[in-house]
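[#protein-structures] MJ: dropping Glycosyltransferase here for a structure pass
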Amino acid sequence: MKSKKFISIVVPVYNEEKVIPELIKRLTIFINKNSNYNFEVIFIEHGSVDNSFVLLQKFAIKDRRIKILQLSKNFGCDGGIAAGMRFATGDACVIMMADLQEPIGLISDFIKKWEDGYEIVYGIVKKRTASFFRNINS
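AK: finished. structure tokens for Glycosyltransferase:
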């Protein structure tokens, strides 16, 4: 019997307590629908001043697929991604932001390309759905 491929999803988190419940809900639905893979979701919390870490802990207690890596300070998004990738144990690693700007369904597209033999797969945002001020700050 062929073993399931293991996918790590790495999500850097900084002051995202307002979106964490919806993000985890969407990721859980996606993971449960894609039972032909095993998943881990690694949240890299790097210095949030809100309750992001506490909230993540509550979800991690309920779901062993959720892992939290808390950094000692804010190393920026890239630092969080790098730490998450070192911590990941999957056959492939998917990186996504916590702000719900990327459709969760894209993970399937990325996995498909990886299974087709691509070593690196990435997407490009065609149109941001955030507010004018959020786009300027991005």
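MJ: nice. The chain has one domain: 5-137.
AK: one more thing. Residues 20-33 form the longest helix (14 residues).
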